[in-house]
Design a protein that fits this description.
Strand content: 15-25%
Helix content: 40-55%
Number of strands: 7
Strand order of the largest sheet: 4-5-6-7
Distance between the termini: 91 Å
Radius of gyration: 30 Å
Largest sheet: 4 strands, antiparallel
């Protein structure tokens, strides 16, 4: 019986110094971690744009290849987001999930430009359009 009373008497909990030390350590961890996470949203948005542009390039290349295989000759222009040679067309997918793409083609340099617009509502700070130009071989 006395042994149980001695154990109960020795249970005192944390001291004020120990609690303050833990709070200081948590404050330091928060001060280091929070700035690293603050920039993650803008980085994610930039990567989302890059991914959408890459998807647009892929769509234009796939449609070009399909046109070439179907018609036996290369298209000469892009009209209304479709490859064309004047008589045949091959549509290029414009829906890129959260973005919409439009395509243009420079026949002199054989460069395709993919332009993104209509960014999603969760995309803070995104306005206007972003484009990427690549060359068709």
């Amino acid at each position: 019986m006395t042994n149980a009373r001695n154990i109960a008497r020795n249970q005192q909990g944390f001291t004020l110094i120990e609690i303050i030390a833990v709070l200081i350590l948590l404050g330091i961890l928060a001060a280091v971690a929070v700035p690293k996470f603050m920039g993650m949203q803008s980085d994610a948005q930039a990567k989302a744009i890059d991914g959408a542009l890459a998807a647009g390039v892929s769509n234009a290349t796939m449609a070009y290849s399909k046109f070439l295989l179907t018609n036996g000759s290369a298209p000469t222009s892009i009209s209304s987001n479709a490859w064309s040679d004047g008589s045949n067309t091959q549509a290029i997918e414009t829906d890129l999930g959260d973005f919409t793409a439009s395509y243009s083609y420079n026949t002199t340099t054989k460069e395709v430009t993919v332009t993104l617009s209509a960014g999603p509502s969760w995309f803070s700070g995104y306005s206007g359009s972003k484009s990427k130009t690549f060359t068709i071989q």
